[in-house]
Design brief:
CATH architecture: Sandwich
Shape: globular
Number of strands: 24
Structural class: mainly beta
Radius of gyration: 18 Å
Oligomer: single chain
Helix content: under 10%
Number of helices: 2
CATH topology: Jelly Rolls
Length: 276
Amino acid sequence: MKVLYSADQIRFKRMTTEEIRDTFLIDNLFSPDSISMLYSDVDRAIIGSAVPIKGKLNLPPAKELASDFFAQRRELGLINIGATGIVYVDKQQYKMENRDGLYIGRGSKLIEFESVIPDNPAYFYILSYPAHADYPTMHAKISNAEAVYIGSKKESNKRTIYKYIHPAGIKSCQLVMGFTELNEGSVWNTMPAHTHERRTEVYLYFDIDKSSVVFHLMGKPDETRHIVVRNRQAVISPSWSIHAGAGTSSYSFIWGMGGENQEFGDMDNISMESLK
């Protein structure tokens, strides 16, 4: 498992484009027939993926966790952005359609991934944080998700937020997770911008056309930078950074948070006049 060490606000000001990409962008997820994992020192988040093709893939322990199995002291959330797949949690089977989610609680020992049709595999995105309490594993179907419709065509940010793992939905220790889908013709996400001084947030962008990109904005509100993001790439946003973006066409992104609390509305809003 690769370990990624983040930069603070001072170092961030002096970083080159490549240094920013190397520190905050995850561009090597979703390798065929493998599980990819990255360990971030920011809130000890683990960002990963599983793309099973030939058979089942087993989520292994890692020396960085010093545990007997992956979820011994951790919880994790999954969202499938590919074709139909199956997740096995201690031999309990969960059929995962496109955009279905799954919460896996602390103490789950055997976690396996499988695609229903190997030639058209599932693409499982994984986000995990340490947990100090046990919550039951729960399947999150998109039909049962809390959907919030926000934005406007005038502001080019009309979108739907689907909430899966949150205090009023599937319960967890500290993980909050769901995804946002932009309407056709809308390109802006999370603008006006905000920060979470008490939480880290990770964005996984998907449904981006091959000829399109998203310009992900990050940094302190008065000294922003951007990262060019392509399909199925993720960006880590530390608590001091804004996290917003604009695409050359519409797209979707999975958001996930972990840290001091789980309040979805706990944001430090940034005025448009403050951005630089």
